[in-house]
Amino acid sequence: MSSLSATIQEMFNEPGCAKNANKSDAERKKGCTKQLQPGGAAGGCAFDGAKIALQPFTDVAHLVHGPIACEGNSWDNRGAASSGASIWRTGFTTDMNETDIVFGGEKRLYKAIKEIINKYSPSAIFVYQTCVPAMIGDDINAVCKAASQKLGKPVIPVNSPGFVGPKNLGNKLAGEALLEHVIGTQEPDYTTPYDINLIGEYNLSGELWQVKPLLDELGIRILSCISGDGKYREVASSHRARAAMMVCSKAMINVARKMEERYGIPFFEGSFYGIQDSSDSLRQIARLLVERGAPSELIERTEAVIAREEARAWAAIERYKPRFAGKRALLITGGVKSWSVVAALQEAGLELVGTSIKKSTKQDKERIKELMGQDAHMIEDMTPREIYKMLKDAKADIMLSGGKSQFVALKAAMPWLDINQERCHAYMGYVGMVKLVEEIDKALFNPMWEQLRRPVPWEEVAKNRQTKGMAQMDTQAAEVAADPETTRRAKKVCFCKEVDLGTIEDAIRSHGLTSVEAVRQHTNAFGGCCKRRIEDILATMPVSSPPAMLQAAE
Amino acid sequence: MAIVTTPKKACAVNPLKMSQPIGGAFAFMGLRGAMPLLHGSQGCTSFGLTLFVRHFKEAVPLQTTAMSEVATVLGGYDNVEQAILNIYNRAKPEIIGICSTGVTETNGDDVDGYIKLIREQHPQLAKFPLVFVSTPDFKDAFQDGWGKTVACMVEVLVEAPAVGAERDPARVNVLPGCHLTPGDLDELRTILEDFGLKPSFLPDLAGSLDGHIPDEFTPTTIGGIGVDEVAGMGRSSWTIAIGAQMRRAAEAMQAKSGVPFRLFERLCGLIPNDEFIAFLSDISGRPVPAKYRRQRGQLSDAMLDAHFHVGGRKLAIGAEPDLLFDLSSMLHEMGAQVTAAVTTTQSPVLERIGTKEVLIGDLEDLEELARTRNCDLLITHSHGRQAAARLKIPFYRAGFPMFDRIGAGHQLSVGYRGTRDVIFNIANLVIADREENHQPTPDCWRTSRRPLKPGRRSFIDATEGSIA
Predict the structure, then answer these.
(1) A156 and A242 assigned to the same domain
(2) A31 occurs within a structural domain
(3) Domain check: are A392 and A502 in the same one?
């Protein structure tokens, strides 16, 4: 058994990886991944990667050895689907506490394994190592070995504590655990010349079942899917397959290559995303199986199925062409999907304004150029701020990406579609690609977008009212400034007869009036509703004796 | 009076609990222009981030010091320094809040010391707001992380008022527990403003995670309470703390600035809200607005209409202590029996829950108790969905996370109006369940397999379950 660091170093030397082959020895030693930047990283850890890769095994109990964060914060968060067992969705963790940290957590781990076997009796238990027990030196390999012997069930250590690296490394460490402890430990009930393995397919949203009917029709049996809707027994006996397809490009390349090395199972790298790719993959499977001894008529049958399915899919997509004319899509995803989806989108009439190549290999980039031309807009690394600006400036009509950049698009009021693992629709195979086009159509033409992009009408109204009101105040202010006295005197007192303040004041002053009755006699004021106001005016005016001249006249 | 017990098992199955650091990070999300930073390996952040995004359906700022195996051995100073500098330069935040994790606590990283050194090394950070909270994963739970973090914010950010400085009689601090939603905070803000009070919420998730659409893209929080406003909280006339988890922060506020506090352990239910409204009327010197007389009437009427359905229900509830206490007390007061209660961590309110026993455990315990004790209503967060499906009983989602339904941020439970909504929603679940699964059949009340002679049918032996 090799140490964890030796295993990791071995993986950095992976000969099956094209990227690796082009590196110098010194570069290889540094490892595959860029050094993580504190304060600037966003991905999952190695433990996360290992769990993602293995959790879709449905009849296995997945036990996380660590404090509550590793499982408590993350369980039941992935959309893989199962055709039967549900134990994989149960969260098991040793929930290490302070005492365990001080005295070691091995005893608790052993007891936890025993409890799970007694209560749930799963086909096997996968035990995941995490940072804290790795730090304090809990030897999970030893505990698993002892538990396996004493309790009579496979207990598999998955040595992939979070701090050894990113998610991608975790995928591979999970593969190592399978190679070392699981694959080849059991024999299948029977074998056929049509047995294949799918490696790195997780059956998210049940998408494997979009392809499986075609394989069933051709008589091709999935001996083991690693790991979507997988069973322990299937993977344990997967070494008897005739051929293998590596689905999620680089995640488990070590598994595919080592199975070829150890058991002589040839593999190819393929994808069921996109119509062309689905056809290529089916052809490759048939070819490999025939090379390994299956009757050659399989190839003809495969071609027939491909022709039928392609015709059906293109016909279904055809009707979207006029609707998609002139619409531009931005594709932010990684690896295979950076080009495998492109063809179908182009066929549906969408213009691709850019595709990300952050996680793509050299071959991936070649394919992109093939599809999108030499001047393809390949986005190495786009910050959320740049994506937001691009969408806000309407340089694209829809964005297709993973969940992480979802809100960047939505908050810019731009259609967005999830094409990564958290999505709730299945997009694999021929039907899947038609579904994807349907979903794009739904997103693009939702009447909601127009409503959201409209300016707020009451903000305009409010603004108008405000300007109007302010203009009025301005004119009034101007008048007052011009002659305050005139404006003051022009104020209406009696609204019924339209008598202003000045007239009343003059009457009071000149006649020495003291009562409302008298004011009424001298002016036109009615003295009804304005009685109060006149009284107020009388109260504020100094009582002066009327000028002598007027007195005399009266 | 309840007895609080802990199970003896070694393996937690279907955890109810979430870890302390993300509770702490959650609190920082209620500050404007904030970037919460977990000091640990990148997975700690990634899991927390996914959880928040699934709950709120919002972009959530959360960063990591990305501790590698080597850094863990050598100590995390360089990682903390680099993380702070990177965030400071790129995201241009107004504050960085740092929470430790299991790895760095096991390691014994002295982050307070690191911060001092970093401030000395980088003069641009000398006065920059940095708050550090110690939140090991292997101790306590989500709610504790929140409570500790708010207390730390008060200690670091609130300025002690000058001696003899005048207090603003209308200004009130509100320290909400993590079980309140942005919708709850907005409701409380409206209530306080109706009494002429000017509330400052610490933290204010309603400003950052209420789902509003910002004009500009920002990598930090898009709203919340500003650091300057927090600094001035010492000049308020009162502090209102909601949930027992906030006692620590309220006491810190009083110690630092002399602002007296009143702790409301609950704000769901008729009596707690009567007390709350009376208190507001008292401190504001204003009569209760007519609006709240009407809302109180509506709640009373809701209770009248719902008690037929809620009364007698055997309730299985799993939640963090303050939410558990709040919801279970309200339903207990509506005549429901709290038959199974499971929580995540110790709290003084637990023994006052209206049941015999409160278990600090997981969802397996809750499911098991609900099954053996024939519970007919399950209340817990979204992770209870599998248990609810197996138990085949109505399931009311409460607490964090709520990832399989939308609108989690606006689920209301405080005030007369919030209580009324909760009562209606729960009663409707019970009604729907009865209509779908418990329609009477000619054999519902038959006591033996053989058909009885006419006129001898007995109702006496009918089991409670069959009537429901």
Answers:
(1) no
(2) no
(3) no
Going by pLDDT thresholds of 50, 70 and 90, the confidence category of residue A33 is: low
Q: Please tell me the pTM assigned to this model.
A: 0.87
List the domain range (segments joined by +) for residue A74.
40-181
Instruction: Using the predicted structure, report yes or no on whether residue A423 has a pLDDT greater than 70.
Output: no
Subunit contact A73:B9, Cβ cutoff 8 A: no
- The answer to the question of residue A347 being in a domain is yes
CA distance to partner chain A, nearest, from residue B346 (Å): 14
For residue B51, list chain A residues with Cβ-Cβ distance below 8 A.
73-74, 77
Give the domain B20-157 fold. Rossmann fold (3.40.50)
Pair B45, B35: CB distance under 8 Å: no
Burial class (CB in 10 A: 0-12, 13-18, 19+), B465: exposed
- For B168-209+216-290, CATH number? 3.40.50.1980
Q: Which residue of B has its CA nearest to A170?
A: B43
pLDDT of residue B13: 97
Contact B50 A100 (CB under 8 A): no
Q: Examine the pLDDT at A450 and tell me if it is beyond 60.
A: yes
**Residues B66, A41: C-beta atoms closer than 8 Å:** yes
Number of separate domains in chain A = 4
Residues 66-95 in A contacting B (C-alpha not used; CB under 8 Å): 66-77, 86, 89-95
pLDDT of B466 over the 50 cut: no
Same fold, B3-10+295-437 and B20-157: yes
User: What's the whole-number mean pLDDT along residues B383-406?
Assistant: 96
Residue B451 pLDDT: 56
| pLDDT given for residue A7 in this prediction | 83
| Final residue of a structural domain among A315, A330, A345 | A315
Looking at the complex, report in whole angstroms how far the Cα of residue B218 sits from the nearest Cα belonging to chain A.
Answer: 8
Q: Say whether both A111 and A131 belong to one domain.
A: yes
Q: How far is A199 from chain B (nearest CA, A)?
A: 24
Nearest-CB residue to B103 (from A100, A113, A163) = A163
B42 chain-A contacts, CB cut-off 8 A: 36, 41-45, 162, 166
Range of weakest confidence among A128-137, A304-313, A446-455: A446-455
Same domain for A295 and A228: yes
- Alpha-carbon gap, residue B395 to A113, rounded angstroms: 30
What's the CATH number where A543 sits? 1.10.10
Domain ranges of chain B: 3-10+295-437, 20-157, 168-209+216-290
Contact state of B82 with A90 under an 8 Å Cβ cutoff: no
Return the pLDDT at A1: 42
The CATH number of B3-10+295-437 is 3.40.50.1980
A contact test, residue of B135, B137, B139 with most A CBs within 10 A: B137
- What pLDDT sits at residue B458? 46
| CB contact (8 A) between residue B11 and residue A69 | no
Q: Using the structure block, give the residue that is written with the tokens 């991944």.
A: A33
Whether residue B41 and residue A413 make contact (CB cut-off 8 A), yes or no, is: no
**What tens digit of pLDDT does each residue of A353-373 get?**
888 777 667 777 777 777 777
Q: List CB contacts (< 8 A) between B136 and chain A.
A: 67, 98
Whether A165 has its CB under 8 Å from any CB of chain B: the answer is: yes
**How many angstroms separate the CA atoms of A415 and A399, rounded?**
6
In a domain, A29, yes or no: no
Q: Give B199 to chain A, closest Cα distance, Å.
A: 27
A347 and A417 in a single domain? The answer is yes
